[in-house]
Design a protein that fits this description.
The protein is of the alpha+beta class. It is 22% helix and 35% strand. The chain is elongated and about 65 Å long.
């Protein structure tokens, strides 16, 4: 079995059984550890959505690194604005670890909390390390495994992530998990 890097987010797995490719694909989806918001403390909130929905949105934010993090979201809507969004760009105290969702120079950020005129949100989020197997909010890796029709023992693995982890680090974590599974089976 051989793994060859094709690009920053793609690899070729050669001389491998389909079950091995499937194990790696499953490990990429379920067993790559990342930080995710698992506790949200509301200091102030009088917006239109239920607090549980806001907490769920915060749990979807990609967070880089393996150490726990605490950060704050605080925003007040102007009195003359019919609708204002608190976005990921309003997050503070995160040491740059929360992926803000800025793409191609457009600084819009992820939409998190809608606020009507004069409404406020102030919350603190805490993260912990986990995997997609433990809870879906920790799933930050989206693999595509393509079977090579010309060679039935060759597979191309393409990895996209939320930004919480780089594709190569995700592959390394998945391969480590797969190795541990094989080791446990061989005992």
């Amino acid at each position: 079995m051989q793994l060859t890097k094709l690009s920053d987010s793609s690899w070729r797995l050669s001389d491998a059984d389909v079950s091995v490719a499937n194990l790696i694909r499953h490990a990429l989806m379920a067993d790559v550890p990342v930080q995710a918001v698992d506790q949200v403390t509301f200091h102030q909130y009088n917006g239109p959505l239920e607090s549980a929905m806001i907490a769920h949105r915060m749990g979807q934010l990609p967070v880089r690194g393996l150490e726990p993090l605490q950060f704050t979201l605080k925003k007040e809507a102007p009195l003359d604005a019919p609708l204002t969004w608190a976005t990921s760009l309003d997050i503070t105290e995160d040491d740059g670890r929360v992926v803000k969702g800025v793409q191609e120079g457009i600084a819009s950020g992820f939409l998190l909390v809608p606020l009507l005129a004069g409404q406020k949100v102030h919350l603190t989020c805490r993260t912990s390390l986990g995997t997609g197997r433990q809870r879906s909010t920790w799933n930050s890796v989206f693999p595509v495994v393509e079977h090579n029709e010309a060679d039935l023992r060759t597979f191309d693995i393409h990895i996209e992530t939320t930004g919480a982890i780089q594709p190569e680090a995700a592959l390394h974590a998945a391969m480590t998990y797969a190795k541990d599974v094989f080791t446990a089976l061989s005992v």
